Each structure stands twice: as structure tokens, then as C-alpha cells.
Amino acid sequence: MTIAKTFLTALKKQWLAERTRCQSCGMPLIYDAHRRTGQPYCSYCHDGAGFVSDMRLADMRARVDELLRRRRASALVRFYMYWRLATLRRWRTRRESGPG
Ligand SMILES: [Zn+2]
User: Fold this and answer.
1) Which residues, by Cβ under 5 Å, contact ligand 1, an ion?
2) Which domain holds residue 54?
3) What is the pLDDT of residue 100?
4) How close is the Cα of 60 to the center of ligand 1, in Å?
5) Taking the CB of the first residue and of the last residue of the chain, which one, N or C, has fewer CB atoms within 10 A?
């Protein structure tokens, strides 16, 4: 029962982190000490008036991957974040032309 409880606690924490990720860099907002309430972006990405740096999705992917490498994250985690970044609000843009 203890293992199950530990697992559920970890799962709940992960779920909470998933639904409160910064919608620009993907960092769980629970880790942002300077987070502003009602703001979907972390304080490193957005200062309340606008984005701190003008980036494209590819730039953000490179930045996040570099960070994960330094933290010795597994290839699976790095791949997950590579995919996850594209689903965030800042990068979900409607294309004017093309299929889909
Ligand atoms: Zn961010």
C-alpha cells in the first residue's frame, strides 16, 4: 500500500505540474518563485507586459534541450519536451495557408 500511495502522490504532483506549465518554455509554474497569478507564462519568459525575448519555436526547443542536457535529463524526457513545446499556447499558431 505504501508503494501505491507513493506512486499516486508522484502521479498527482506530475499531473499538477503538467497542467500548470508555462505556455512558452514548458517549465512547471510551481517552480517559478516570481510567478504572477493568472499569468500562463513564467517570469523568465514574460515580464507581465510582453515576452522577454523574441524567439521562434526552434530557438525555445534549443534552449530547453540545452537546459535538460545540463540537468542530465534522459533522452525520453528531452524528446517529450521537444514535442510538448509545440503544444504550448505561445507556439500554437494558425497558419494562413497549407493543409491542416
Ligand atoms: Zn517560461
Assistant:
1) 22, 24-25, 42, 45
2) 23-88
3) 43
4) 10
5) C
